[in-house]
Amino acid sequence: MYAKWISDYTWSDNGDDTVTIMGYSDTAPKVVIIPDKLGGMAVTAIGAEVFWYRGLTSVTIPDGVLTIGHMAFYGNELTRVEIPASVMSIGDSAFAANELMEMKMEVSSGLISIGDSAFCNNKLTSVKIPSSVVSIGKAAFCNNRLIEVAIGASSNLTSIGISAFSFNELTAIKIPLSVISIGYAAFYGNKLKELEIPANVATIGDFAFCENGITRVIFGSTPSIGEESFSNRTKGSLRYLARL
Hints:
The chain is an all-beta fold. It has a domain at 1-157: Leucine-rich repeat, LRR (right-handed beta-alpha superhelix) (Alpha-Beta Horseshoe), CATH 3.80.10.10. It has strands at 9-13, 18-24, 31-33, 37-38, 41-46, 58-60, 67-68, 80-83, 89-90, 102-105, 113-114, 126-129, 135-136, 148-151, 159-160, 181-182, 194-197, 203-204, 216-219, 224-225, 239-242. The relative contact order is 0.08.
């Protein structure tokens, strides 16, 4: 059930003394500090499309938010965002099509999933993925300017989605030991030269590392490898090595 407007927000009661933000006024400020409470109840969720196309230039998300809905901040002018440690899931296209140059996640984060296209079409140059993350969705960081991706020690990451990091500027990537699947075109169109594939990786999708210029790959096991997964086409020869 929707509540009346409080300040610039509409919200719904989750029935457990928490609320989900469901709307934001078109005439409200473009520099947004999201309250940690509305109607005396804790804000734990930001609903789908709440802030999309609002011309936002800055946003502060309070600790205590657990979920960020799909397209929640899509199509704004954000240059920086900090994801609180409390956030467990980031929805599809949540921060896509902004001007993000910095995205900070806490080392102590409880984040589990990063949705499809969550941060695509921005200007990020580096990201640190907390060790709590289990899945990175399709095109999650596609079409940025990434030169560095750091994934937390003792990572729980098991799947890297289709085109997750495609069309960036990566020259190196350390794939965590926990990863089981690497999706279609996951790292397509970067600048990787050498790779080490951990033993737990069972499947590598078609074109996963295509168009990088990779010259050397070390395998910890014998995964299923898709069509042209490591193809360099016109970028030189490639050596496959097995770890003894």
